[in-house]
């Protein structure tokens, strides 16, 4: 399933081009037309100027040749007049030349034998506009072209081959300029026409050869992109194969491949949808920002009909369990921050959720694109049946433990149950209970010993809530949950104790004492007093339960089972009066194991047996009843106690101050609390139970050697006088 989702995610992965910023669109038609127009314009302009230049050159050269010929003829005709000095004839020849409308100026200069004989003005001249020409600097033959006229200088040679005169003639270029202007206009029109025709031809050719085929390819690609398939009729085709034709062929093959792949993907999606619609697990795909995608199994919609595409992951968790919605939102924010490893972030998300009577387990699978997170697949499993099965097993296990305790120690169990009922009545009552922490901790410890694990764990969770809030008051919902557990438990216990009647238990010593009194025919008053003492509980029974409790705590703490020695000294105590004390006594045992005994490796390193030793005893010493707990553990680190006392603001100047700090409410040297200890409540409960009986607590401890707790209670008027002669082996009885 995960591989299929991975493949689907990879087909949707955007390319780097698609993720880049969009560029401004410029059609290929424009890209091709602009350079074609510019190119043909430049070619036309160059052609125009080239033709105009050639035409001008040819026209001027023809004009110059004709003018030069006319001037030569004029020179030949005027030569006799020059030779004979006939100015009249010279003037007539000039006049004949001036009849040519293109001749604007004519001057005939005679050449003398020296500077004195050279005339200062022309011998004959003609000026159409009245202007004057300059005397030639030399008698050489030449021609010069100006903007508006053409000037020809031609020497006149006599019979002796000497230059006798120089003829200077100017010819107008007006007619040629008019011709050139008309030619330029026609050439421009022709060039423009040719350029436009060439441009149009090139554009049409490119349109047919390049643009139109590419447009067809674009249309086919868009159709393929929109999922409509590719129509081969619009692909470029021709009689001759070229690059575009090959591109069309390749595109057609690609379109077929895409269509085939889409068909396979559609078939895979169909199969996947069929699977998703029929699996018992819920699959939901999430983007890296926590957005819920459309791909999810049908059972999710049945479980969460209000879930919609585009919602956030925290919304889904809120539908399942509103209490965890904020945690889900904060957890996903860590994923978006991309600061911590993704595995660590996913581990912070909710693992289980409860919706009404349904229970779900939540797992998270990552879908990566290389090393980049692409999708997260949320796998939801309905574990209601499993939870109910586990609960049934726990109920059965609890029931078996209750039966075991009831069979082995019926009287002790009933006494415990009576004391537990008192504590629960206070906890569930509407009146404010100042000892709520001590009562909860006591209920937790004793119910754990008697196998009532669900009640113990319920108390532990409520303790967590009290510590988090910093208030010694139960919430209504906590009281409701605790009440529900207690109601279920009382129903099971009621079924076991229904019809039970009160009875008395006799030990061998009790029986021997009674038999001895009857045989010795002691007075009825002594026998009556002896029998009345049978209503008291032997401390041996309590100490044996404590031994079992110590073994249970050792197993839960991962420590070797401690060796427990018991000295009861045949002492009996009235159960009604001492019930609250024995309920708190369990905290003293927990303290001995959790804080006193070291782990096996630590004891071995210190040269001690890996298994610790705890001594439990009850005795009478003078006017005091002593109950003692002694261990051979690590002892008390008084320096650490002093540091903690300073933190708590408790007196710490003397050893007595530190001993009182150990018994203070909320005092503990543990860094973290567990199901057994670390709340700083147990020893405070012991202190209050001892003080309620008028007792005192004495503590002795040596670092590395162990700790001894001695609880001393006054016998006062409740002490029963000993009858050594009648009860040689019985213990003392404390009232």
Key terms:
Beta-Lactamase; 23 helices; 735 residues; alpha+beta; 5-stranded antiparallel beta sheet; 16% strand
Description of the molecule:
The chain has 735 residues and is α+β, with helices and mostly antiparallel strands. The protein folds into 4 domains: 24-237, Beta-Lactamase (2-Layer Sandwich), CATH 3.30.450.20; 277-382, 2-Layer Sandwich (Beta-Lactamase), CATH 3.30.450.20; 389-503; 532-718, Heat Shock Protein 90, CATH 3.30.565.10. It is 54% helix and 16% strand. It has 23 helices and 17 strands. The strands form 4 sheets. The chain has a 5-stranded antiparallel sheet with strand order 2-1-5-4-3, covered by helices on one side. Strands 7-6-10-9-8 form a 5-stranded antiparallel sheet. Strands 12-14-15-17-16 form a 5-stranded mixed sheet, covered by helices on one side. A hairpin with a 3-residue loop joins strand 16 (696-702) and strand 17. Helix 3 packs antiparallel against helix 4, helix 8 (313-320) runs antiparallel to helix 9 (325-337) and helix 19 runs antiparallel to helix 23 (682-692). The two termini are 73 Å apart. Mean pLDDT is 80; it is low at 4-19 and 717-735.
Question: Outline of this structure?
Answer:
The chain is of the alpha+beta class and 735 residues long. The protein contains 23 helices and 17 strands.
Layout: helices, strands, pairs:
Blueprint: H1 2-11, H2 16-19, H3 28-84, H4 87-98, E1 103-110, E2 124-127, E3 142-145, E4 149-157, E5 163-172, H5 174-225, H6 243-276, E6 282-286, E7 292-296, H7 298-303, H8 313-320, H9 325-337, H10 342-347, E8 352-355, E9 358-369, E10 372-382, H11 384-408, H12 410-428, H13 436-449, H14 453-469, H15 476-497, H16 508-519, H17 524-533, E11 537-538, H18 539-557, E12 563-567, E13 572-573, H19 575-596, H20 600-605, E14 613-621, E15 624-631, H21 638-648, H22 655-662, H23 682-692, E16 696-702, E17 706-714
Parallel strand pairs: 12-14
Antiparallel strand pairs: 1-2, 1-5, 3-4, 4-5, 6-7, 6-10, 8-9, 9-10, 11-13, 14-15, 15-17, 16-17
């Amino acid at each position: 399933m995960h591989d299929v989702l991975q493949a689907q995610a990879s087909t949707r992965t955007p390319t780097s081009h698609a993720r880049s910023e969009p560029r401004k669109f410029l059609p290929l038609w424009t890209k091709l037309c602009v350079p074609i127009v510019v190119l043909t314009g430049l070619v036309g302009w160059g052609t125009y100027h080239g033709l105009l230049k050639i035409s001008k050159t040819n026209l001027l050269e023809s004009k110059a040749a004709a003018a030069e010929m006319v001037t030569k003829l004029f020179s030949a005709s005027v030569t006799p007049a020059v030779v004979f000095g006939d100015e009249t004839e010279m003037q007539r020849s000039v006049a004949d030349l001036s009849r040519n409308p293109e001749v604007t100026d004519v001057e005939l200069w005679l050449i003398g034998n020296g500077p004195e004989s050279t005339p200062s003005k022309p011998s004959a001249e003609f000026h159409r506009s009245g202007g004057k020409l300059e005397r030639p600097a030399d008698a050489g033959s030449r021609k010069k072209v100006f903007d508006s006229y053409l000037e020809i200088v031609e020497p006149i040679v006599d019979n002796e081959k000497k230059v006798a005169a120089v003829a200077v003639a100017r010819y107008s270029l007006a007619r040629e300029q008019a011709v050139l202007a008309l030619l330029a206009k026609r050439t421009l029109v022709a060039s423009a026409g040719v350029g436009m025709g060439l441009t149009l031809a090139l554009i049409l050719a490119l349109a047919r050869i390049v643009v139109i085929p590419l447009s067809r390819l674009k249309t086919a690609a868009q159709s393929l992109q929109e999922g409509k398939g590719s129509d081969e009729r619009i692909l470029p085709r021709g009689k001759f194969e070229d690059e575009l034709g090959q591109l069309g062929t390749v595109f057609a093959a690609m379109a077929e491949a895409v269509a085939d792949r889409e068909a396979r993907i559609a078939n895979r999606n169909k199969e996947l949808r069929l699977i998703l619609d029929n699996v018992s697990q819920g699959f939901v795909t999430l983007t890296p920002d926590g957005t819920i995608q459309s791909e999810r199994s049908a059972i999710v919609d049945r479980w969460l009909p209000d879930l919609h595409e585009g919602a956030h992951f925290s919304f889904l968790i809120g539908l399942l369990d509103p209490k965890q919605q904020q945690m889900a939102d904060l957890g996903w924010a860590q994923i978006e921050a991309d600061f911590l490893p993704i595995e660590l972030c996913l581990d912070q998300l909710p693992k289980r959720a409860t919706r009404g009577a349904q229970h779900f387990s939540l797992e998270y699978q990552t879908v990566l694109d290389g090393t980049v997170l692409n999708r997260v697949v949320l796998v939801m499993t309905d574990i209601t049946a499993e939870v109910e099965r586990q609960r049934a097993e726990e109920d059965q296990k609890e029931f078996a433990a209750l039966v075991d305790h009831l069979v082995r120690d019926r009287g002790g169990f009933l006494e415990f149950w009576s004391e537990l009922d008192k504590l629960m009545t206070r906890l569930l009552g509407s009146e404010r209970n100042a000892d709520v922490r001590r009562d909860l901790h006591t209920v937790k410890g004793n119910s754990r010993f008697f196998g009532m694990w669900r009640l113990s764990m319920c108390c532990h969770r409520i303790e967590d809530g009290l510590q988090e809030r910093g208030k010694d008051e139960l919430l209504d919902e906590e009281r409701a949950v605790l009440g529900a557990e207690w109601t279920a438990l009382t129903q099971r216990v009621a079924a076991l104790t229904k019809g039970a009647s009160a009875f008395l238990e006799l030990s061998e010593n009790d029986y021997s004492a009674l038999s001895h009194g009857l045989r010795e025919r002691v007075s009825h008053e002594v026998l009556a007093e002896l029998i009345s003492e049978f209503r008291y509980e032997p401390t041996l029974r309590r100490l044996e339960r404590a031994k079992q409790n110590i073994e249970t705590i050792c197993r839960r703490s991962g420590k070797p089972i401690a060796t427990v020695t018991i000295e009861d000294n045949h002492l009996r105590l009235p159960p009604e009066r001492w019930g609250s004390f024995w309920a708190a006594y369990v905290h003293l045992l927990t303290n001995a194991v959790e804080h006193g005994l070291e782990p096996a490796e630590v004891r071995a390193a210190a040269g001690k047996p890996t298994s610790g030793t705890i001594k439990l005893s009850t005795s009478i010493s003078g006017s005091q009843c002593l109950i003692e707990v002694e261990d051979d553990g690590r002892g008390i680190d008084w320096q650490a106690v002093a540091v903690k006392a300073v933190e708590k603001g408790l007196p710490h100047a003397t050893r007595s101050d530190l001993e009182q700090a150990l018994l203070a409410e909320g005092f503990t040297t543990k860094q973290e609390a567990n199901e057994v200890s670390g709340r700083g409540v147990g020893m405070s409960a012991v202190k209050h139970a001892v003080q309620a009986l008028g007792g005192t607590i004495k503590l002795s401890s040596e670092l590395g050697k162990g700790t001894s707790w001695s609880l001393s209670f006054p016998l006062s008027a409740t002490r029963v006088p000993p009858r050594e002669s009648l009860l040689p082996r019985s213990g003392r009885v404390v009232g």
